[in-house]
Amino acid sequence: MTSNKETARVAVVTGAGSGIGRAVSRLMLAEGYRVALAGRRENQLLETADGHAQALTVTCDVTKPDDVEHLFEAALQRWGRVDVLFNNAGIFGPAASVDEISLDDWNATLAVNLTGSMLCAAAAVRDMKAQDPQGGRIINNGSISAHSPRPRTVAYTVTKHAMTGLTRSIELDGRGFGITCGQIDIGNTATEIMDTIGVGSGALQPDGSRRIEPMFPVEDAARAVLLMAGMPASASVGSLVVTAAGMPFIGRG
Predict the structure, then answer these.
(1) What digits encode the pLDDT tens for the residues 201-211?
(2) What is the β-pairing status of strands 179-187 and 55-59?
């Protein structure tokens, strides 16, 4: 009989040092996954891992191709394959409309949210094509801003709309290799990014007012990611939207 260690699936989680990435990493470890935790700050990755024997921490800036290659090489050296990528690393970017944002801020937001996601997906696909048995699953962390933007979030919103194109392209191109790709669009989890935009104290609404919006626990968002990751190879969740109940998303104020 094969041991659980031999059969456990291998996941790579970017942005694993905090927020949704931390919650997903910890839940995956608790559910028996072997998890490569990627992020820019080693101390935060170590806090996420909390000494778990099946956690591998890898310092990685997803905007740097060499860092991304090192991340996936480290996972392969440790476990020999990659079954799941949770493409989660991202930043909210500046609060600005299109006529206000600087080119540097625009490029910085696109570099992390879009180019970084592309680099990680490319590395994962190469490994998933080459491994035996072939195949795997990529889950891209989009946002409800891929459907309905907040005011003054032009760079962030554009990257999340583009993430949908990346997701669909990977899903299409991966068909012949057993590689599936889906996108989870999450709204108002109780994480640090919600403090940035003032959800708990009064987030800017399209009519110029500010409104305290409901939030939901990040652990519930992590369970949704785990649902997508755990689907059998014969099925794929292409798109999943999960929000705090009652938040202004449908008919955003």
Answers:
(1) 777 887 788 88
(2) unpaired
Distance CA 73, CA 25 (A): 19
Distance CA 68, CA 221 (A): 25
Q: Is 156 an annotated catalytic residue?
A: yes
Task: Give the type of residue at 159.
Answer: T
Q: Tell me the domains of the chain and their CATH numbers.
A: 4-243 (3.40.50.720)
Which pLDDT belongs to residue 2? 32
Closest by CA position to 88, among listed 12, 35, 26, 30:
12
Q: Which helix (H) or strand (E) holds 252?
A: none
Residue count of the chain, please give it. 253
Give the global pTM.
0.91
Q: Whole-angstrom Cα distance, residue 22 to residue 195? A: 17
Distance CA(143)–CA(140), nearest Å, equals 10
Sequential DSSP letters for 10-38: EEEESSTTSHHHHHHHHHHHHTT-EEEEE
d(CA 14, CA 213): 27
Nearest to 125 by CA among 59, 57, 68, 164: 68
Catalytic residue among 156, 167, 174, 226: 156
Partners of 242 in beta bridges: 186
